[in-house]
Design brief:
Layout: E1 2-10, H1 27-39, E2 46-47, E3 56-66, H2 72-80, E4 87-95, E5 105-115, E6 129-130, H3 137-145, E7 149-152, E8 167-178, E9 191-198, H4 205-217, H5 225-232, E10 247-254, E11 260-265
Helix pairs in contact: 3-4
Amino acid sequence: MRNLLMTVCYDGTNYYGFQTQPGGNTVQDCIEEAIKGLTGEVIKIHGSGRTDAGVHARQQPFHFMTSSKIPIERWRMALNGRLPADIRIIEAAEVPLDFHSRRSAKRKTYRYTINGNRVPDVFWRNYQLHHPGKLDTAAMREGLRYLVGTHDFTSFASRHSTKASHVRTIYEATLEVETSPVYSGSNEQGIIHILLTGNGFLQHMVRIIVGTLLEVGEGKRKPEDIKTILEAVNRKAAGPTAESKGLMLWSVEYDAIELKGNEERC
């Protein structure tokens, strides 16, 4: 048997998330079907994590076991020829048999994008939350500071979370404002990117953080309220869950992996 690690990027607009759902159209379903068409094997891939319906991924690793002898350098092109245009394998490598894409992950980064301009960008509308109202980005940036560190994030987790522990560590939390002419429409506030890097994330965690930060930006809450919300350990203390379309799994990092044979990258 061989253990293959691949990285996929996808536009999640038309999918019910990454992980297989009962009766749902998911990214995992498409990849597993593509592998079956290529090798004839019925296998289950293991992702570095799950994403909600409508969430996108710039880099999402997954691994699977295969008895196929297909050289590693041929996998990417062969699978991409069988996948929908909104799902693409961008890297492929053979890794040790004990490697696990989720358990071996050390750091994950999510990016949430808000279009703060008066006019939404028609070309980026599936990847940005449009918020034309004035936002105090300095206050939002200050609020983010209270998230850095190890905390119980129950207040920022879905009520349906099944995790035994809601303690997570956030290593970095930043807010960037982009006024690039790449985006069509007016540029009153620009494009706001919120990036969170941590050792793991709970269901809806980033989206609830963003929904709460938007209330800070609107002046409905103070930046220091984020600390109070964390301490409450109660979902009712936080703000609403922001729309899924603005969220993207940006990257997943591992310790150095001993690769076996060739590695294929684009």
